[in-house]
Write a structure and sequence with these properties.
Blueprint: H1 3-15, H2 18-24, H3 29-43, E1 48-49, E2 56-57, H4 59-82, E3 90-96, H5 98-101, H6 104-115, E4 119-125, H7 132-137, E5 142-146, E6 155-163, E7 165-169, H8 178-184, E8 186-190, H9 195-206, E9 212-217, H10 220-228, E10 234-237, E11 250-253, E12 260-267, H11 273-290, E13 298-300
Parallel strand pairs: 3-4, 3-5, 8-9
Antiparallel strand pairs: 1-2, 5-12, 6-12, 7-10, 7-11, 11-13
């Protein structure tokens, strides 16, 4: 069992396909496929569902991903020890979009504190677009945000996962078809000043869906509360890690609407690259272990 194969496994989980993982790891698709076949031979079990046109990790394969991330983190720590590098210390100043501050980020900070007790982490919430400039100028070391439409020349984006968009309705909504619901009920829109709001607006135009706009808000928690009270329906990103007190509304998957990649934004010349890498690893572990990528397509948020 090689470190290379574990890295490839994690890349497949993160990017969703063998082809995308191959591109991210600078390999050919056939090389990735061969690595995974050899990995399955080493394990003595199948970890991919090849009945689909595009092979996907099966349940057993998805269970391996958090352990693979842990092994890779331990390997990196082993390398640092072998090179005589000091224990991780100092301060890490991070930003995070609002939804992550009540979801993935606190879990990752707690893990970082347990692993590196001498490290101090400061966190500041803001909308994704408002965190790019502070990272670019060095006011923040990194930020957990949606992927920017355009990256500055000094910035790098490390994808952690993808948050699919879904339709929110009140629990008593009798309809199931997203188009039918959107055209029948008042629409509560995510602000078009936000990247996710722009993606949703583009999709509505592309699909020629006519909505009856009721209000435009810039917070998913506010929108969910409005939906809960029966004031309309909404399209929002599904948080990669749920809040501790989610609003009980109905969630319906939206075919054809691509999710938004979320991850860590940092400068490519950051002097705190090792701290950022460690934080990124913990974010990926949190998503893999307690995230909701395998949540049902139609379920109550409060369930």
């Amino acid at each position: 069992m090689s470190i290379r194969r574990l890295k490839t496994l994690v890349a497949i989980s993160r990017h969703g396909s063998l082809s995308a993982a191959a591109a991210s790891e600078h390999l050919t698709r056939s090389a990735v496929s061969l690595q995974m076949k050899q990995f399955e031979e080493d394990l003595g079990v199948e970890i991919f569902d090849r009945r689909r046109r595009v092979p996907e990790l099966n349940a057993r394969g998805r269970l391996l991903v958090p352990k693979a991330i842990e092994v890779l983190a331990a390997y990196d720590e082993l390398r640092r020890t072998a090179r005589g590098e000091a224990t991780i210390t100092g301060t890490l100043n991070i930003g995070a979009m609002f939804t992550a501050m009540t979801g993935a980020v606190p879990h990752a900070m707690k893990r970082m504190r347990a692993l590196y007790p001498d490290l101090h982490i400061q966190a500041a919430p803001a909308h994704s677009a408002n965190l790019v400039a502070p990272v670019d100028r060095g006011a923040l070391d990194a930020a957990f945000i949606g992927r920017p439409p355009v990256l500055g020349s000094r910035l790098v984006f490390h994808t952690v996962t993808e948050e699919p968009f879904h339709l929110l309705t009140a629990g008593d909504c009798p309809l199931d078809d997203p188009r039918e619901i959107l055209e029948a009920y008042p629409f509560i829109r995510i602000s078009r000043s936000l990247w996710s709001g722009q993606l949703i607006d583009d999709w509505l135009v592309r699909e020629d869906i006519t909505v009856h706009e009721a209000m435009e808000l810039d917070g998913i928690q506010m929108i969910s509360t409005m939906v809960y009270h029966g004031l309309g329906v909404a399209v929002v990103p599904r948080r990669c890690v749920p809040a501790p007190n989610p609003v009980a509304v109905r969630e319906i998957a939206i075919p054809g609407l691509a999710g938004r990649p979320v991850g860590i934004l940092a400068r490519d010349d950051s002097p705190k690259a090792s701290l950022i890498d460690a934080f990124c690893t913990q974010m990926r572990l949190v998503v893999a272990e307690i995230g909701r990528r395998d949540a049902p397509d139609d379920a109550d948020q409060g369930a």
